[in-house]
Amino acid sequence: MLDRRTFLLEGSAAVALIALLCSIDGARAEPAATPSAEFNAAFNTLIGKAVPREAGLTLDLPDSVENGDYVPVALAVESPMTADDHVTAVHLLSTANPRAEVATFRFTLLSGKAQVTSRMRLAKTQDVVAVAELSGGRILVARRKVDVKVGGCGI
Amino acid sequence: MMKKPPRIKVPETINAGEIIEIKTLATHIMETGNRKDAAGNIIPRDIIHTFTASFEGEDVFSATLGSGIAANPYIAFFMRVPGPGALTLTWLDDGGTTTVEKVPLNVR
After folding, report:
1. Does B65 contact A at CB distance below 8 Å?
2. Can you tell me whether residue A56 is helix, strand or coil?
3. % of chain B exceeding 90 in pLDDT
4. Does the predicted TM-score (pTM) go above 0.90?
5. CA-based torsion, B46, B52, B56, B59: positive or negative
6. Does the structure show a pLDDT above 50 at A86?
7. Would residue A26 count as lying in a domain?
8. Is residue A69 located within the same domain as residue A121?
């Protein structure tokens, strides 16, 4: 016979179990945070009227990190780096940090390669976006989602 | 303000025309300006906001950094070495400190 007390107890146990399962599941496949207004504004300014392409720009980040304080990031653009065909800048943007603009890296013909490695902070699970500016007004865009278990401290 | 001088790594010997990787590690808190102290006051932003690399007066690479760059900024980049000379690396922070390091390149 299912009396009210047993029903409530079983019910609360079930709720607790569901909450536990959700938290485990959430840690594995949390959706990326909604892009901030600051990110959208910065991204749209960078893209302008160009039609962005993806080929040629590599944005390398871990799929998931325990700690958002210290996330390795590598950017590379395939380019001969000649006067006629080169990369002028690569912008690194966060979609959900308090500040969208993480860094801008500027290259010259003396750079030889449009490639840079650094370490960034991530406040929460989100997409990281790179925008490369090439000679002739060409724009490349790359996007990578990173799962963050513990957000970057106080960013 | 950097507590220690930055660490810089370049290849020991370089052939003229070679593309080399230059690895740099600065010592800096990179305080974001978003954190509060125990009294609830915002801790002012103090980050390295600009890094530049030049070779014998010519620009090689530069970076504008925001608060989303991790503490103790690590930046590794590339350079086509045209011939003998020295690399000049500069870090500028919000406190007005400029750190300059001159790195002679051993070009064969």
Report:
1. yes
2. coil
3. 96
4. no
5. negative
6. yes
7. yes
8. yes
Domain that holds residue A24: 1-30
> Is the confidence at residue A91, as pLDDT, over 60?
yes
Quickly tell me which residue has 């901030």 as its tokens.
Answer: A36
CA pair distance B77, B79, nearest whole angstrom = 7
What architecture (CATH level 2) is domain B7-105? Sandwich (2.60)
Q: Which residue among A106, A117, A155 sits closest to B67, beta carbon to beta carbon?
A: A155
* DSSP β-bridge partners for residue A77: A57, A114
The enclosing domain of A102 has a CATH number of 2.60.40.2470
How far is it, in rounded angstroms, from Cα B65 to Cα B67? 7
Mean per-residue pLDDT over chain B, rounded: 96
Q: How far apart are CA A101 and CA A91, in angstroms?
A: 8
Name the residue among A84, A100, A98, A110 with its Cα closest to residue A42. Answer: A100
Q: Which of B59, B61, B65 sits opposite A103 (nearest CB)?
A: B65
Residue B23: both structure tokens together: 């690895």
Query: Smallest CA–CA separation between A98 and chain B, in Å?
Result: 8
Distance CA A41, CA B107 (A): 45
